Amino acid sequence: MRVTHRMITTQVMTNLNSITARLLRVQDMLSSGKTLRRPSDDPVKLNHVLLLRTSIRKLEQYTQNAEDGASWLNLTDTSLNQATTLLQKIRTLAIQGANGTLTPEDRMMLATEVEKYLEELIGVGNTSYAGRYIFAGTETLTVPFALQDGRIVYRGNGDTVRREIEEGAIVELSVPGDEVFFRGFEAWSNEGIDVAAYQGERFRINGVEVPVSDHNGDGSVTFEDLVYFVNTHSALKDSVYAFTDGKRLFLRSRTEDAFTLEEVSGSVLEEWGLLGSSGEIPATNSRGASGILKVVRDLAEHLRGNEVARISGEDLARIDEALDLLLKVRAEVGARTLRMENAVSRFGEFTLNFKKLLSLDEDIDVAEVVVQLQEHQSVYQMALAAAARLLQPTLLDFLR
Amino acid sequence: MRTIFLGLEIARKALQTHQAAMNVTAHNIANANTVGYTRQVPHLVQETVPLSGLFVPPHLKNVGLGVDVDAIQRMRDRFIDLQIRQESRTGAYWNAIDKGLEQIEVIFGEPNEESGLSQIFDRFWNTWQELAKNPESQASRVLVAETGNLLAQALNHTYRQLEVQRWELNEKVAIKVQEVNNYIQQIYDLNQQIVRVAPAGGNINDYKDQLDVLVDNLSKVLQVQVKENDNGTYTIVLQGRILASDRERSFLALDVDASGMNRVTLENGPVVDFTYQNGELKAILDLRDTIVPKYQEALDTLARDLQKAVNAVHRRGFTLEEPPEHGGDFFVGSGAKDLAVNPEILANPMKIAASLSGAPGDGENALAIAQLRGKPIISGSNPDDYYRGVISRLGVEREEAQRIAKNQDLLVQQLENRRESVSGVSLDEEMTNLIRYQYAYQAASILVRTIDEMLDTVVNRIK
What we know:
The structure holds 2 protein chains of 2 kinds.
Chain A: H1 5-32, H2 43-98, H3 104-125, E1 128-129, E2 132-133, E3 145-148, E4 151-154, E5 162-166, E6 169-172, H4 177-180, E7 186-188, E8 202-205, E9 208-211, H5 223-232, E10 240-244, E11 249-253, E12 261-263, H6 268-272, E13 286-287, H7 292-304, H8 308-362, H9 366-391
Helix pairs in contact in A: 1-9, 2-3, 2-7, 2-8, 3-7, 7-8
Chain B: H1 4-30, E1 40-48, E2 64-74, H2 78-108, H3 117-133, H4 138-197, H5 205-221, E3 225-228, E4 234-238, E5 241-244, E6 252-256, E7 262-266, H6 280-316, E8 331-332, E9 340-341, H7 343-347, H8 364-370, H9 383-423, H10 427-461
Antiparallel strand pairs in B: 1-2, 3-4, 4-5, 6-7, 8-9
Helix pairs in contact in B: 1-10, 2-4, 2-5, 2-6, 2-9, 3-4, 3-8, 4-5, 4-6, 6-8, 6-9
């Protein structure tokens, strides 16, 4: 093959260019610390890197969710602990009050003391976390418990605040106040009702007409629509609130007092089990007021009324029941707290592992890259030296 | 009877021939670094008495008549030219595609942790999680609205950058057409010169070198048929139309289609069909009409399906107003280019429907939106997967373009080495030839002197 000088110079230039290009790439890696600068550097790795980064950011969010949830639950537990302590003190007073040797005046004094504790209990029920009342269901901006003319009012609702702590894993965070502290008069429907079939029918709660139709605009008629209607109706929401577990409709009074139910068209309420044939709310589907606050308020009333038999009988039994309930709820809260804390530490480990993997994928191995740099540099120098020797001599050098 | 003057005549021819050969060598050396220059070699032939036809005097029988330069040859391998044009055209195509894809990569800005869309997406979903946690909080609401806005703007910006790239490519089409027209004009001019010079016995080698350079350059931009005519001119044909010959020329022209994009047409003729084309112009058109729009389309799908899914969930929820109202649209717009957060929500973040029941502490609907990130809402994939798919496809596509472009460059380089091996000027070789011709010239001079002496003997010494 004929080899000309131009071929030699082009070849030398090409080789030098490819070596400097490699040097540039190594230089870029060293100064940025990353092996991946563009998707085309390694598309498979890039996919992996983006996936890991997203997973890490998701985990960071879930960690925050779980941490926040844990502190919410801790506060719940502290509050319930306070409630337990108060209730135990009240129980001591109740035992004293049941003592037959006490005079009515002594009981009046005990009653005053119980009422003071009742107010403290209400204060516990109104505990707030970062401006949100934790025992108000999802009505977190409303002070849930109050005493109005000596009667207890609950202004929250029956929903729970929930939180996603892992993809698809939703944990109930709050304990609605009406589960522990106070639930007013309550009536509920039977299960297995095809609500849509009653579309267009109407009934009355406390004299306010409630039509069965798609109130929340989701295109279907369910109990959710009635819940929405009741809870947002200006004439109803101060006296009654509704709740559904998906199968049944619960109507709850905000106070001990019952609400009134009337049919307007057809016999919706009767067919749902909310109204008996005599126009009364059937006992099988209703319950009077309950909860710690109710128990304590009754105790105070009985102390004032000097009803020793009721104090030693039903009141003490109900206080014990309430204590049991508190214990049960606290155990549940404890279990959820544990779940949150486990999640936090597990996510911490995951995040660490993912970051390690990410670093393996996208960070340079400094030692390796520096060695590469040295290699390229020496190859570059050799190429320059070779070029210098190759390009110099021509026949001209010898024709003198 | 042989005449003594015959020797003198042979010596004269030798002197002239070697002088001419030295001139060719000088020309070669002078052009050793000229682009496109083809090494020229003097074709020396021995002169003999014609064997047939004329009466040959007996004293000329079996005698050589010296040397002459029959022709000056261009050392050129047509087949290598053909290969180089074909391979460098493919190389030019992939290099242009690679450059275009590089620009798209820069526009998407992945995997840079600060600039890529993926991190804005992550932030968007996380703010919904935060809102689900604190549905009553004004701050969380502002954050959702602003991050949503940021995401929308990032999509707008990326889309518009791609649109800008398309218009730049569109400008390039015009520039390339101009370039092709320049080549056509120059080829036509050179053809004309060749036609004028060749019949007069002129040397057309240097014109042909220039022609070859022009055809090489033209071939990188556009695939044309090249025909070498007997008189040394080239005829360039595209889609049956003669673009340049020794008699006529016809340029490419531009017109504008309905969307304002340049179309390449033959002068006063139909639109050029680029289906089976290759080369730089085809690459620019492919980028403008297929590749860039493909990524715009992907962004559009992402924006539209995201908008649809988020809005559908958002409308189910309730706002934090008194009384709570049904959520409206969270996103408005018709695609990636004008996606935006509903201005009403930006003005009043209480209009974000985080609640499913209307209660202020209920973040179920915000959570439902946050959970959309794991749902197959964007043409069958979840948003993360979909976007990652787009970026991976971009990476693979460019990696492929880079690989082919690099291979083609190597191939072309090898072919050019082969061409250089045939056509390039080797200074060593030229020096050797120079010495060869110099000695032959010296020897011929001695021959003249010797015959001179012989004539001197004959004319002056014989008395």
